[in-house]
Amino acid sequence: MGSVDAANGKKPTVIFVLGGPGSGKGTQCAYIVEHFGYTHLSAGDLLRAEIKSGSANGTMIQNMIKEGKIVPSEVTIKLLQKAIQENGNDKFLIDGFPRNEENRAAFEKVTEIEPKFVLFFDCPEEEMEKRLLGRNQGREDDNIETIRKRFKVFLESSLPVIQYYEAKGKVRKINAAKPIDAVFEEVKAIFTPEDEKVEA
């Protein structure tokens, strides 16, 4: 496959963003984009855009989702890879991926990119439930049983990924139960280069 370069020929900087449903990672990603110039790539959005495009690939993805099958890692990785190569930026937040250990191994193998670090928005289940149930625009899948199931699935599949990177010292864990601004203060501290941090 060979390695993946950004549009400017540089090796891209990739940060994986993981957090369960309701952990607020979408909001934080938007802040990171605004303050630090990253490009936000959401695996789910890329899959949805591909389906919408009506391509043969999109139709295949749609059918798999309809049948309740899991979209193969390779498919998602190809979309991420294409987005990285075509974007023009060389710093990316990859959100909601890798969802499991197989995703992770496949991503590194196919792209030869290892993430700079993994940003993990750690939020207790009670807080996530409160947030998701309190969403006024409440998604139809935001009832308590579904939320608990989504949380359980997230934990079971994502924990091995987090443990893998933890062993490499690459996990930056954020306490996501705090208010949005307080969470972003923690995030900012991680993204601000060492030399720009003011000595306290």
TrEMBL record:
<keyword id="KW-0963">Cytoplasm</keyword>
<dbReference type="InterPro" id="IPR000850">
    <property type="entry name" value="Adenylat/UMP-CMP_kin"/>
</dbReference>
<dbReference type="InterPro" id="IPR033690">
    <property type="entry name" value="Adenylat_kinase_CS"/>
</dbReference>
<dbReference type="InterPro" id="IPR006266">
    <property type="entry name" value="UMP_CMP_kinase"/>
</dbReference>
<comment type="subunit">
    <text>Monomer.</text>
</comment>
<feature type="binding site">
    <location>
        <position position="178"/>
    </location>
    <ligand>
        <name>ATP</name>
    </ligand>
</feature>
<dbReference type="GO" id="GO:0009123">
    <property type="term" value="P:nucleoside monophosphate metabolic process"/>
</dbReference>
<dbReference type="GO" id="GO:0005524">
    <property type="term" value="F:ATP binding"/>
</dbReference>
<keyword id="KW-0539">Nucleus</keyword>
<protein>
    <recommendedName>
        <fullName>UMP-CMP kinase</fullName>
        <ecNumber>2.7.4.14</ecNumber>
    </recommendedName>
</protein>
<dbReference type="GO" id="GO:0006207">
    <property type="term" value="P:'de novo' pyrimidine nucleobase biosynthetic process"/>
</dbReference>
<comment type="similarity">
    <text>Belongs to the adenylate kinase family. UMP-CMP kinase subfamily.</text>
</comment>
<keyword id="KW-0067">ATP-binding</keyword>
<feature type="binding site">
    <location>
        <position position="135"/>
    </location>
    <ligand>
        <name>ATP</name>
    </ligand>
</feature>
<feature type="binding site">
    <location>
        <position position="103"/>
    </location>
    <ligand>
        <name>CMP</name>
    </ligand>
</feature>
<dbReference type="GO" id="GO:0005737">
    <property type="term" value="C:cytoplasm"/>
</dbReference>
<keyword id="KW-0547">Nucleotide-binding</keyword>
<keyword id="KW-0808">Transferase</keyword>
<dbReference type="GO" id="GO:0019205">
    <property type="term" value="F:nucleobase-containing compound kinase activity"/>
</dbReference>
<keyword id="KW-0418">Kinase</keyword>
<dbReference type="GO" id="GO:0016776">
    <property type="term" value="F:phosphotransferase activity, phosphate group as acceptor"/>
</dbReference>
<feature type="binding site">
    <location>
        <position position="150"/>
    </location>
    <ligand>
        <name>a ribonucleoside 5'-phosphate</name>
    </ligand>
</feature>
<feature type="binding site">
    <location>
        <position position="139"/>
    </location>
    <ligand>
        <name>a ribonucleoside 5'-phosphate</name>
    </ligand>
</feature>
<keyword id="KW-0665">Pyrimidine biosynthesis</keyword>
<feature type="binding site">
    <location>
        <position position="48"/>
    </location>
    <ligand>
        <name>a ribonucleoside 5'-phosphate</name>
    </ligand>
</feature>
<feature type="binding site">
    <location>
        <begin position="69"/>
        <end position="71"/>
    </location>
    <ligand>
        <name>a ribonucleoside 5'-phosphate</name>
    </ligand>
</feature>
<dbReference type="Pfam" id="PF00406">
    <property type="entry name" value="ADK"/>
</dbReference>
<dbReference type="GO" id="GO:0005634">
    <property type="term" value="C:nucleus"/>
</dbReference>
<feature type="binding site">
    <location>
        <begin position="22"/>
        <end position="27"/>
    </location>
    <ligand>
        <name>ATP</name>
    </ligand>
</feature>
<comment type="function">
    <text>Catalyzes the phosphorylation of pyrimidine nucleoside monophosphates at the expense of ATP. Plays an important role in de novo pyrimidine nucleotide biosynthesis. Has preference for UMP and CMP as phosphate acceptors.</text>
</comment>
<dbReference type="GO" id="GO:0006221">
    <property type="term" value="P:pyrimidine nucleotide biosynthetic process"/>
</dbReference>
<feature type="binding site">
    <location>
        <begin position="96"/>
        <end position="99"/>
    </location>
    <ligand>
        <name>a ribonucleoside 5'-phosphate</name>
    </ligand>
</feature>
